[in-house]
Each structure stands twice: as structure tokens, then as C-alpha cells.
Design brief:
Keywords: DNA damage, DNA repair, DNA replication, DNA synthesis, DNA-directed DNA polymerase, Methylation, Nucleotidyltransferase, Sodium, Transferase, Ubl conjugation. The chain is α/β, with parallel strands linked by helices. The two termini are 51 Å apart. The mean pLDDT is 93. The structure holds 2'-deoxyguanosine-5'-triphosphate, calcium ion (2 copies) and zinc ion (ZN).
Length: 573
């Protein structure tokens, strides 16, 4: 698979969780957690490292390196499997419920014998949790909400997981002789925030060599179906991939059809019908004569329906057809429009790459400016201090302009406290080039409290960007309860940007919230929130999300020239 590092990260994290829920050594659990993150963010493919090179990864000592090696060699780790076996599968599922967590899940299993998510729902409605220490009515609500979040995510995967795999498959198929075209379509081409299955489309006269290569890919576990029109496989990680092979002459119609969304396609078919045409994956046909009208390119299909080509992220039937008819499609922000990244971390706090490495990697991506925004002191685990921050500023100033003349900004990611205050007083904040401010605690405040909290943060003259504004973690943590319109109004009024956090497990703001925010005239920052050099390219997922929110380049502050950006960052000061 594309990233063995992520597989190993998941395994080490699972081991850490297992240690802590079975009452093991907390120090050991923490060590595995740190190693997991370090491996996930490591710049080299761990499956290519020998045991000695493995130990050069931060937080990976001999014993952890041995387990990684065992996993890469055999596909499993004995001690992890032993611990897994001690906990029923249903309980392990319970530990993943957002808002419940491993400790409480184990307590419910031990004290009440609850051993599955279904049993837990039953126990809550029978009020069997009442009276248990640490379980109030609010907790019950949170657990039920958490279960809903988990079930909603279902078997869908994050965008980067699907993208890595899809790009690998497309590259393999494109190399097969006779393959005239190959690309991914479906929700992935539309940059939807999670992906149900991957749809790959190829053009060839003879589909057989392509199907042959496809079904024999090393990471294919099972061929679910193989017919004339479609071959579906399941990968070893449980992700479904559909391959369709069409004649080159039908490429445009097929690409249009299989990109979707279904709702967008229905709108197009209605337009076709009104024009006496029939639209299918084979082409656009004249209903009267049955003759093919067009099918080779998507542009032709749209044009024949009286429309300009519509970018895939807009194809959700959210008014794009109407806008296209009026000639008012937005000129969407593109990845190439971004001049920099305004929210990133280093190993001074919870990042795993050094300042030098982050800066060098960012410069290689072609950024013309780049902000370093490590965590502020109130996130206690990070042990930030004034001195450390000032020392980092010196280091940042020394590197300024050194890599491809990329300009550096020294910032921080502040913690918005429950009342809307932040970590430092004005005088200290004034020393930063920019401040991101985020909610990192007290996620369960009421909507009124949370709204006041975020509005106050916007009103702080030194807060420039609200980081991951709703705090959601896809499949793991729901968005906070807040009156977003009120917050958006405050952003527009105070000159505070809303972040589009590009981390694939956040994508926060979401496409729908972006659409809402832009109606208030809000400005946005598309940021990677990178904690490692390998996260820097995640910006593409933020741009995809911004496009789904209809954003143009001028609405995104990190497409602006540095001078314009600096003036925005002054907030009228
Ligand atoms: P996913 O896989 O749940 O993330 O979402 P999609 O959009 O990739 O959906 P999928 O894989 O079921 O189908 C891929 C595309 O094929 C879909 O976006 C539109 C097209 N399609 C599939 N079934 C239908 C259908 O019954 N009617 C129409 N008009 N289009 C369909
Ligand atoms: Ca799909
Ligand atoms: Ca599909
Ligand atoms: Zn951050």
C-alpha cells in the first residue's frame, strides 16, 4: 500500500491503547504513542529501513524497532495480538466511541458486562448507567452522539487514504499496454471529505489486460465482481475499488457520468431530455434518430447541453447548474494560487520534524512565504515557555529568505480558553507576525458559551486566524455546538480569517460551512497544520474543500502577495 508508515503508526497506536485499557504501564503506553506519531510523520518509507535505520526515528528504541520489523516481516505482532485477544471485539469497538474513550468503555465492560455498541445503546435507554461514577445524563447524551458520529462515518475513508491508493492504481494501469487513458472519478475527483469507494476509469479497445493487471495488484484481497462493464475488488485494508474500461470514443461521457454526483447528473439528464437528447455513460444521443451526438470529452458534453465545463468539486447540485447558465460560475482557487502556508508546527512542540527540515521542505513546494506556529503554553503537555518561543523566533529570523528566498513569519497557535481569552498578554502577542487561535479544550460548552468564546477571540486585535473552527475530527469527534453565523459576522467585522484546515481528518471548516461563511464576506486561510514534512502537501485537500465551498483566490488570504497579507494581519492597527 501507499504508506506503510501509516499502517505502522496505526499498529503502534493500537498497542498503546491496548496497554492503557488493560491497565498496563502508562509510561509505556505513552512511549508507544509517541513512537506511533513519529513513524507516521517520518519522511522515509519505514518498510525500506533496516533495524538500525529504524532506530534513528525519534522515539523509536530497540524494542519498538523490533516490533515494527516483526510487523513488516509477518504482517502481525505477537504481543499486540495477545492483548487484542484479551478484549472482546465489541468492547474494542466501544473504546473507539467519541466521547466515551477507552477507560470508560472498559469500566462498562467490567462493571456492567456491556460488551458491544448495541448493548451500550440498550443499557443507556434502560438507564442502567445511572449511578455509575462519572456517568451523568450529559455523558449519556455525548455517548449517543458519539455513536452516531461513528456510524455516520461507517466504512468511509479519509481523502488522503483513498487518494494515495487511487494514484498508485492509476499509475499501474496507465503503464499497461493498450491503455489510452486512466484516471480516478467518483467522489474522489470531487474531493468529497470522505470516500466510500474508489472509481477508476480507463479507456482501451481491449479491457482484458487492464482487468488482469487490476485484479492481480498486490494489495487486492478479493475480487468482488468482474463483468463486462465493471470489475470491483476489495483491498487488504477493506476499501472497495471499481474499475470501468470504456472505448476511447466514449471517454468524455463516461468520465462525466462516473464523476457524479448522482444529484448533479440527474440535473444534466433533465436538461438533456428537454433538448430532445438522452445522456448516459455512453454519450449524448439524439432521442429521435438514436444517433450519437457527442461523447469524446466532458467539455463537449457540457457544451452540447448549453453549459460551460463545471469543475468536479462543484458538481453537487448546490446551484452550480444555475450559476453556469447565468455565466456566474466562480473562478475557483487552485493549488497553484497558494503562496504560502500559515499554520504549521515543528518538533519544538508536538511536531515530529525540525524547524530546518520543515522550512526546507516548504521551500521545495514553491511557497513564497511560510509561517511557523507552534503551540502556546496553555496546552500544558507541550511545555512551551516564553524563552523557548523567543529562541525559536531568533532561529526563524536566521532562516528567513535562506531557502529559495522563501520569507518566514513567526507565529503561534494560541489556545482559546473557555472565556475567549488566550495564552499571552498583548505585549507578548505583539511580537508575533501572526497568531492562529484554536479551541483545544472544553469542547462541550453550550452554543451560547461557545459562540461568545469564539467571538471574543475574533475581537482580540492579535488573533488573525481561527484554527480548525469547529474542532471536528472526522469519525472521531463531532463539531462543537456554536452559532456559526454569529462567529462569521464577527470574523468579517474584525478582519479575522477562518481556517480551512487541510488535515484530512479535519477538513475544518467543511465545504458547507465555507459556503455559509462566504455569504458574510469572511476571508479564509487554507493551511496544512503540518506536524511533519510529509503533511505539508496536504494543502491539496484544503484546496479541494475550498473549491467545494466555491472559494475564489481573492477570498483566501494566503494567495495574496506578502505585503497585502501583512496589512491584513495588522487588523487595522
Ligand atoms: P462514494 O463512493 O460514496 O464516496 O460516492 P460516489 O459519488 O463516488 O458514488 P459511487 O461510487 O456510488 O458512484 C460513482 C459515480 O457514478 C456517482 O458519483 C455518479 C455515478 N452513478 C452511480 N450510480 C448512479 C445512478 O444510479 N445514477 C446516476 N445518475 N449516476 C450514478
Ligand atoms: Ca465512489
Ligand atoms: Ca463506486
Ligand atoms: Zn496546529
Amino acid at each position: 500500500m501507499a504508506r506503510p508508515n501509516e499502517e505502522v503508526e496505526a499498529l503502534l497506536q493500537e498497542y498503546a491503547d491496548l496497554i492503557s485499557i488493560t491497565g498496563g504501564d502508562a509510561f509505556k503506553a505513552r512511549a508507544y504513542e509517541k513512537a506511533a506519531r513519529a513513524v507516521g510523520g517520518y519522511h522515509e518509507d519505514v518498510s525500506r529501513l533496516d533495524p538500525k535505520a529504524l532506530q534513528e526515528i525519534p522515539h523509536v528504541g530497540r524494542s519498538i524497532a523490533e516490533k515494527v520489523e516483526e510487523y513488516l516481516r509477518t504482517g502481525g505482532v505477537r504481543v499486540v495480538e495477545e492483548l487484542r485477544a484479551r478484549i472482546p471485539a465489541g468492547v474494542r469497538q466501544m473504546t473507539a466511541i467519541p466521547g466515551l474513550g477507552p477507560k470508560k468503555a472498559m469500566m462498562l465492560f467490567r462493571d456492567l458486562g456491556i460488551s458491544s455498541v448495541d448493548e451500550l445503546v440498550e443499557a443507556i435507554s434502560a438507564e442502567r448507567l445511572r449511578g455509575l461514577r462519572g456517568f451523568g445524563e450529559r455523558t449519556e447524551e455525548n455517548i449517543l452522539h458519539g455513536i452516531a458520529v461513528m456510524q455516520q462515518a461507517g466504512d468511509r475513508v479519509h481523502l488522503n487514504v483513498a487518494m494515495d491508493l487511487a494514484e498508485e492504481i492509476v499509475a499501474e494501469l496507465a503503464a499497461v499496454s493498450g491503455c489510452a487513458r486512466c484516471t480516478y472519478a467518483g467522489s474522489l475527483r470531487r474531493y468529497r471529505e470522505t470516500i466510500g469507494d474508489i472509481d477508476v476509469l480507463s479507456a482501451a479497445d481491449d479491457p482484458r489486460p487492464l482487468v488482469e493487471t487490476f485484479t492481480n495488484l498486490s494489495y487486492v484481497d478479493e475480487v468482488i465482481a468482474s463483468g463486462d462493464k465493471k470489475t470491483s475488488v476489495r483491498t487488504t485494508k477493506g476499501l472497495q475499488v471499481d474499475l470501468r474500461v470504456v472505448p476511447l470514443g466514449a471517454w468524455g461521457a463516461a468520465l462525466q457520468y462516473f464523476t457524479g454526483s448522482k444529484a448533479h447528473n440527474i440535473r444534466l439528464r433533465e436538461r438533456a431530455v428537454r433538448a430532445g437528447l438522452k445522456l448516459s455513460e455512453y454519450g449524448l444521443f439524439d432521442v429521435g434518430t438514436g444517433d450519437l451526438v457527442v461523447s469524446q470529452t466532458e467539455e463537449e458534453v457540457y457544451e452540447r447541453l448549453g453549459l460551460p465545463w463545471i469543475p468536479p468539486p462543484l458538481r453537487e447540485d448546490r446551484g452550480e447548474v444555475e450559476a453556469a447558465l447565468r455565466g456566474e460560475l466562480p473562478d475557483l482557487v487552485a493549488e497553484g494560487d497558494l503562496r504560502g502556508d500559515l499554520h504549521t508546527h515543528t518538533d519544538l512542540t508536538d511536531g515530529v520534524s525540525s524547524l530546518d527540515d520543515m522550512v526546507a521542505a516548504a521551500a521545495r513546494l514553491g511557497h513564497s512565504y511560510y509561517a511557523v506556529t507552534d503551540h502556546a503554553p496553555n496546552l500544558y503537555m507541550q511545555r512551551m515557555s516564553d524563552d523557548k518561543m523567543l529562541a525559536q523566533r531568533e532561529a526563524v529570523r536566521a532562516l528567513d529568505g535562506r531557502h529559495h528566498r522563501m520569507r518566514l513569519l513567526h507565529g503561534t497557535e494560541l489556545n482559546i480558553d473557555p472565556d475567549g481569552g488566550v495564552d499571552w498578554p498583548e505585549e507578548f502577542l505583539a511580537g508575533f507576525d501572526l497568531c492562529v487561535a484554536s479551541v483545544h479544550s472544553h469542547f462541550n460548552q453550550s452554543a451560547a458559551e461557545m459562540t461568545r468564546r469564539l467571538v471574543r477571540a475574533c475581537e482580540n486585535p492579535h488573533v488573525n486566524i481561527i484554527g480548525h473552527p469547529t474542532g471536528r475530527l472526522l469519525g472521531r469527534r463531532p463539531a462543537v455546538d456554536v452559532d456559526l453565523d454569529e462567529v462569521f459576522r464577527a470574523c468579517a467585522r474584525t478582519g479575522t480569517a477562518m481556517e480551512v484546515n487541510a488535515a484530512p481528518d479535519r477538513l475544518d471548516l467543511s465545504d458547507e460551512n465555507i459556503l455559509r461563511a462566504r455569504r458574510h464576506g469572511v476571508r479564509f486561510a487554507v493551511d496544512s497544520d503540518a506536524h511533519s514534512v510529509v503533511h505539508l502537501p496536504y494543502l491539496r485537500y484544503g484546496v479541494g474543500t475550498a473549491q467545494r465551498g466555491w472559494l475564489t483566490a481573492d477570498e483566501v488570504i494566503n494567495t495574496w502577495p506578502l505585503r497585502t497579507l501583512r496589512s491584513f494581519l495588522r487588523k487595522g492597527r
